[in-house]
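Figure-free illustration: sequence to structure, shown twice.
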Amino acid sequence: MTIANWCVLAACLLPVVTVGLAKGGSAKVPREAGRYDNDNPRIWANGLSGWRQRANAAQQNGFEALPLFIAAVVLAQQAHADQTRIDQLAVLFIAIRIVYIIVYLMNQGTLRTLVWAGGVATSIAILLMA
């Protein structure tokens, strides 16, 4: 498996980790005060606020970023583009997504948008190798 393929797996797991922050962050909260409700997770998510709400939103954005990134990696590899370059850009994408999550949790909207754009640009750069 290539480094880029491992990055695809990492990109698929990042949203799970991100929402895990929101869920885990509520573990010590009483149920009536907003502790995670596994019986009604979507209703629970609708009631989030603060950094937990942003973690849930970062999870959703993580899923939204997946199709372009996965397609880019697969198509570039099928086109027999330079695998080292694909790997480098895929690692960069994962690093950008981690920074994105951090700035999202820190409530830095403008910086978050700039970082998000960097992630999209990285996926496009991989796709253009196809």
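We now fold a second protein in the same way, so the two outputs can be compared directly.
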Amino acid sequence: MVNIRRWLRHLFMPPWAWRRAFPQAALDAIETAIRESETRHSGEIRFAIENSLPAFWVWRGRTGRARALEVFSFLRVWDTEHNSGVLVYLLVADHDIEIIADRGIAARVDASAWEEVAQTMEAAFRQGKFAEGVLEGIQLISTLLAAHFPPGKRNPDELPDRPVIVPSGYK
């Protein structure tokens, strides 16, 4: 069954809405936090923001989780030497955070740990603290990765650190 309120939220979400929560200074701070985080572990973190989904996707029941899995693939987060990529995906229209960990990390970190990180971030979002919530989430993810993927002598930066804004409906 279609959630009409969700469908309307996605249908009428202005394409610039993400900028209110993440002005340039916030994006710069997130990029810096990711870069610094990746010096403490051999994992790779990507942060992606998608404003809304096309209304027909919502009508057909596409979830934030399903879309996060697609974005994980599109951004090639899986393409790391040790399968140690993590995608933090924000669907602004739903205020939904999804964390997708590559198979190397998923084998070592329980899904409940990722859910706790997402809930921490969502709690900050409910208070209107978007950048702070993401920065706290990156810190928590960094702690998890450092425990299971300490940096080696060779610790290349395999994925871009800059947050990516996913165009609505991007395939």
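Summary for the second example: The radius of gyration is 16 Å.
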